[in-house]
Amino acid sequence: MQLTRKTKVLRELREWLISIIAATVIALLFQNYVYAQAEVHNISMQKTLAEGQRLIEDKWSYRFNQPEHGDIVIIHGPESPLRLVKRVIGLPGDVLDVRDGEVYLNGQLLSEPYAEGMTMPLGMQFPYTVAPRQLFVLGDNREHSADSRTIGPIAFSSIEGKAVYRIWPLNKFGIL
């Protein structure tokens, strides 16, 4: 039996439609659970990141590994109505202190070449011990950042992912 031209066209359209739907579903799952794009919306990470820059966020690795000191994380949880981009300073059990505009981690002065400005307590009581399943985060632009000093510690469950690449602007493209 020979297929008519109309039947061939309908079969071809159906195959294309199935392929497009499958590709869309896979792309959406990939973006929701593996990698996504994020945008920096404020100046709290300046010197490292500027407002308007676009990042690739790794949502996958924290399913298998814990955040580490110095990681730049995307926060989306009850601590703030906004998605935040901040740097991990304290992990569970760490003791943080802020003295004379500097951060001390477990009694040692923290070397922070990425930080800009003085780190002030902003009403938070130091020394501070990070609780289990929480992180202490700071923005790199210390004098203009809403971070753990003002919104409190960040629950692990509020960490959406880790910023790994800057993709825009192109002249700043690269690994973070």
TrEMBL record:
Active site: 44, 86
PANTHER family linked to this entry: CHLOROPLAST PROCESSING PEPTIDASE, SIGNAL PEPTIDASE I
Keywords per UniProt: Hydrolase, Protease
EC annotation from Swiss-Prot or TrEMBL: 3.4.21.89
GO cellular component, one term: plasma membrane
This protein's name: Signal peptidase I
Domain Peptidase S26: 14-168
SUPFAM superfamilies: LexA/Signal peptidase
Family: Belongs to the peptidase S26 family.
Keyword match Hydrolase: yes
Membrane topology reported for the UniProt record: Single-pass type II membrane protein
CDD domains in UniProt: S26_SPase_I
Localization, UniProt: Cell membrane; Membrane
Lineage, highest ranks first: Bacteria, Bacillati, Bacillota, Bacilli, Bacillales
One annotated GO molecular function: serine-type endopeptidase activity
